[in-house]
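Just wondering, can you check both lines?
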Amino acid sequence: QVQLVESGGGLVQAGESLRLSCAASAASGDMLTINTRAWYRQAPGQQRELVAAITFGGATNYAESTMGRFNISRDNAKKTVSLQMNSLKPEDTAVYYCNIRGYYYRGSVLPGQAFDAWGQGTQVTVSS
């Protein structure tokens, strides 16, 4: 099974920075490949929204509210995705989730099975 482990997050003041990271791994003997990685966030009483996404090739997509302040990056070899968040605002306060999609190979053999996995979520709180 795909396991995602998130790290980072916390409480900061407006204008400060935080970095979130998420690592994907497969069970022993299995293998996974990744197509897309993304970060979503969900504030209390609101729907989950896309923050940023990045493809295997490095093409990125950002929510308009985060453009110019957030930067998503990935390490294909380490199967990680990170989100550097600068100039944080109180409205960035939310639980942040990583999302990774790809293919999973049991016993490291074909055929692979598509997966869509979510991290456990990490709280980001920005005080004014």
Remarks:
- Residues 20 and 119 are 12 Å apart (CA to CA).
